[in-house]
Amino acid sequence: MANKLISQMGLPKSIGNILAARNILTAKDALSLTEFELMELLDVGLSEVTSAVALISEIACPPYQTALSLMQERVQNEYLAGHLPTRLKGLDEALLGGVPFGAVTELVGPAGIGKTQFCLKLSLLAALPANYGGLNGRVIYIDTESKFSSRRMIEIGATSFPEIFHLDGMAQEMAGRILVLRPASLPEFTENLEQIKLSLLQHQVKLLIIDSMTALVSGESDKDLKASKQHPLGWHISYVKSLAEFSRIPIVVTNQVRSQNSNESFHYPFQVWNNDESMKDLPRMESHLVAALGIHWAHAVTIRLVLEAHSGKRFIKVAKSPVSPSLAFPFVVTSSGISLVSDDGIEIPGPEISAIHCQGYDDIFDFNR
Amino acid sequence: MEVSSLPLSPSQRGKLIAAGYTTLSSLSSVSAPDLARDLNISEHEAIEILKVSSQSSKKIDGCHAIVTGAQTAWDMLYEEEFMTRITTSCADLDNILGGGISCKEVTEIGGVPGIGKTQLGIQLAVNVQIPIDYGGLGGKAVYIDTEGSFMVERVFQVAEACIEDMPYNYPQKDFQARKNKMQPENFLANIFYFRVCSYTEQIALINYLDKFVAENKDVKSVIVDSVTFHFRQDFDDLALRTRLLSGIALKLMKLAKKFSLAVVLLNQVTTKFNEGSYQLTLALGDSWSHACTNRIILYWNGNERYAYIDKSPSLQSASAAYSVTGKGIRDAASHCKRVRIM
């Protein structure tokens, strides 16, 4: 509604014409100026400007809903109440049903931990027919790291859902529903994203996966990023979010990790004098990993799942979620994809939930389980 | 008073000054036809100019106070005593805030992702509706969502827990009789949810709020989650950003005063290079940090969530622990333990 034309808003003719003459055509043009700037530019008095701005604002502002009508609408319109179940029982319960529609869910973790495995499983689940608990739709898989493996995906499908995959031609049909895009550069990726906006609605796409968001940016040098004031993915962040919301599908994005620089303290200035002592006690020696896309990106995702390994086990942690408490679930990667060792999450207090550990998980794939 | 300070269009102002009308007193005795002839404008326009100037001069002379619009500090003290506050559902946090988030003021709350900003926002949208009998405000809430992180299922949980906890907090009331009235559905129906998809819409909505609140007088809190999001992307002209943001802040302050409602702005954090290391700070830059009346920063202290009053004209800077539970914002776990020991 930001680009709504002022000429169609029914302003009084006199001021409407002046606005048009000064090339202020849309609500965005008018509202990007302060009232005094408008007075100067349009050469009219304050009262005219105020009433015009009030009218433009009223028309350009989005309509409201009460939270109640929002909830009723969701319950009525959405199959499975708006969640794609991951079939990991404990995790589904924590997330009130699975990966939510209309929101961005992020998987972050070190290389080889199982992010892509998780994505492959999710794409299968979205492609499955509805009578098997799937979403019966197409999946768009943006594979920026060239890690998508059809063979592995069919293997996961055949072991997890033998009854479906052993039907004749089913494997072909399932795999045929998953469309893989492989952009090689950031501009190409941008172009892909713009293209799929329409096809999301037209072609029954029920899931969008971006694996990974990081790969294309990390190619650019760090100094360039620091120099430009804006985040290189600033546009993508808001675009992906609006895409999720307007098409009401789940979007799953993976993120890599990098080691933390020694001069990154991640504390507020007032904390420094407050607990200077305790800060030194923190085990700085530990090799610390942080998500590759910084704090700006972390604010933008609705759910963050951290995949990590320590003390010989792998864990999947609900690091950020508006509905779930901070839980960690131990998991293993098997021939059927990811499975939880236990459905009872371990509650993790404090900021530990968003820490990413990576020590010793040589049990790469345990195919015999 | 000079003519140049009148809210007139630049060309009219120019004509006035060119014709020698530089002060308001010079305009007070002139008649509309004379002015029209002197400025070479239509009589209608001249009447408009005289109207504006007489309004401005009235403001100065015709008032009993020494300065128009001013209020004595004594009156303000009286008013402050009656200032209502919205509880956060966490006793420690309420304590350092002097009873809760204050109405009539703009409060900014910031913190790292996952610390509980949205949770606090939802909690306040629910708590503002606690009936007056139970020590609440019995108001309604406007929730402006710029990020799409509003989860209606979660609001339902928080509202349920809030109703559940009410008889416990005020056991003397006859709860059963009111129970029919107090359903989570009613709480949800009193939250007006706006989804804002661009900064233009955000500005438009904040301009429009004045009218909206005038029509819905029960609205006692406006929550913006977050004020930052759209202003962090696609913005090349940072000077324009600062101007627009300060415009928003001013309008919200006016709104808070006019309808005595609480405005809560949630803000994201960013890293800032300072004295050789990166430090966390709230986003939108230094000039924005002056814009809000109160500023609260949420942070991790060891394994506990803390809130720190970073800026407030009336409150001492202090910090308090809180926790985010299935029921919403509550006292920190350790606080309960301490109480038990005592």
Automatic annotation (TrEMBL), chain A:
Sequence ranges assigned to domain RecA family profile in this UniProt record: 80-257
Pfam family, one: HHH_XRCC3_RpoA
UniProt key word Nucleotide-binding: yes
GO terms for MF: ATP binding; ATP-dependent activity, acting on DNA; ATP-dependent DNA damage sensor activity; double-stranded DNA binding; single-stranded DNA binding
SMART domains associated with the record: AAA
Highest taxon of source: Eukaryota
GO BP of this protein: double-strand break repair via homologous recombination
Cellular localisation: Nucleus
UniProt xrefs under InterPro entries: AAA+_ATPase, DNA_recomb/repair_RecA-like, HHH_XRCC3_RAD51B, P-loop_NTPase, Rad51_C, RAD51B, RecA_ATP-bd
Recorded GO CC terms: Rad51B-Rad51C-Rad51D-XRCC2 complex; replication fork
SUPFAM superfamilies linked: P-loop containing nucleoside triphosphate hydrolases (SSF52540)
Keywords: ATP-binding, DNA damage, DNA recombination, DNA repair, DNA-binding, Nucleotide-binding, Nucleus
Predominant cellular place of this UniProt entry's protein: nucleus
Cross-referenced CDD domains: Rad51B (cd19493)
PANTHER family: DNA REPAIR PROTEIN RAD51 HOMOLOG 2 (PTHR46456:SF1)
Similarity annotation: Belongs to the RecA family. RAD51 subfamily.
Name by which UniProt lists this protein: DNA repair protein RAD51 homolog 2 isoform X1
The organism of origin for this protein: Nelumbo nucifera
Name of the gene this protein is made from: LOC104594734
TrEMBL record, chain B:
Xref: PROSITE patterns: RECA_2 (PS50162)
Superkingdom assignment: Eukaryota
A single cellular component GO annotation: Rad51C-XRCC3 complex
Alphabetized GO MF terms: ATP binding; ATP-dependent DNA damage sensor activity; DNA binding
Cell compartments where the protein resides: Nucleus
Domain RecA family profile: 82-269
Key words of the record: ATP-binding, DNA damage, DNA recombination, DNA repair, DNA-binding, Nucleotide-binding, Nucleus
Biological processes, Gene Ontology terms: meiotic DNA recombinase assembly; reciprocal meiotic recombination
Pfam families: Rad51 (PF08423)
Protein family membership: Belongs to the RecA family. RAD51 subfamily.
Function: Involved in the homologous recombination repair (HRR) pathway of double-stranded DNA breaks arising during DNA replication or induced by DNA-damaging agents.
Protein name: DNA repair protein RAD51 homolog 3
